[in-house]
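Page 42, continued from yesterday. The earlier attempt failed because a stray header line got pasted into the input along with the sequence. Redoing it now with the clean sequence only.
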Amino acid sequence: MIYGYARVSTTAQAKDGNSLEAQEQVLREKGAQVVYFDNYTGTTTDRPEFNKLLGKVVSGDILIVTKVDRLTRCLIEGMKIIDELLKRNVTVNILNLGCIDNTPAGRLTLQMFMAFAEFERNMIVERTQEGKRIARLNPDYKEGRPAREYDELEKTYYEVKFKRLSLDDALKKLNIPRSTWFYRTKQFR
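This time it went through. Structure tokens are written below.
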């Protein structure tokens, strides 16, 4: 079986060619029969779909990812994953590197690319922290997203309470998730 794995950590990645759809298209073009998707950071390997995938692959299978940083952004964790897959006789094909083999040259190449993926992640974190530090110098700076106003919330809450509107319809009307509804409407209870 040929499996594909696609991962994004932010919705912004949809704009830079790393969207799940773009990855899936490439993976399927390269022969992936089943593709697993995660919307998680690459700094952790504890991802629901990734864990399912690792539980499925068996000897003789092929795992395809578009780039090494879609697999992981941590050198040590990445090497553990690849080692485990190679021990299970699973072929790992990282499209921007090629098939990974268990030779000294193959391992060195993989380690270098994984080190760069981890380095890139560390640089992103450093730039983000520096940007926040500079922003905090502004006396009007507020951490996080600005609070969104829900002008129709109270009216909509009472429409739901008195059964003139279903909760699902209210969520669609306000364009909010269920968790926001319950958090914001507790003031009316």
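Notes: The beta strands are 2-8, 34-39, 62-65, 91-94, 98-100.
Reminder to self: strip header lines before submitting.
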